[in-house]
Amino acid sequence: MAHSFALAYGSVSIVGGIYSIQPLMVILIASLLTLYFPGIIKEDVSSSSLGRKIAAVALVIGGSWLLL
């Protein structure tokens, strides 16, 4: 619903760019929940795992940037 609202009032390329950082926010929130509330969520927060996840998010953001 928020996506449709944003598309109605904003540029498609800007909305797409903003939505491309969603995976980064998911990784950040999941990592913080794992560190501060380990009983709620179990996420692998080792440096090698986080490095791979951040590299994957960078590829997604880079691909979205190329489409803009």
What does this structure look like?
There is one protein chain. By secondary structure, this protein is mainly alpha-helical. It has one domain. The chain has helices spanning about 1-10, 10-20, 20-35, 45-65. The longest helix has 21 residues, at about 45-65. The model has no long low-confidence stretch (mean pLDDT about 80).
Q: Structural class from helices and strands?
A: mainly alpha
What proportion strand? under 5%
What's the helical proportion of residues? over 70%
Radius of gyration: 15 Å
Per the principal axes of the C-alpha atoms, what is the gross shape? flat
Q: Could you give the order of the helices and strands? A: HHHH
Number of domains: 1
Low-pLDDT regions: none
Overall pLDDT level: 82
Largest sheet: none
Distance between the ends = 22 Å
Count the beta strands: 0
Tally of helical segments:
4
